Amino acid sequence: MFAVSPQSPQQQQVHQLIITLRKALAIQKQLEQSCERSNLAVEHRWSLNEINQKGVKS
What we know:
Elements: H1 9-37
């Protein structure tokens, strides 16, 4: 966060983004644990874009 000035709007946005990402990670871990308890496989992906049968992103 040293790339933006303290107390700047951008610094506040970075701070809020960090908070949001931490919350998302906590929710993801809870969901993964719930899936494991239900014997559901967890598949990690780097993208939400699905590749169709022709190998083209949709």
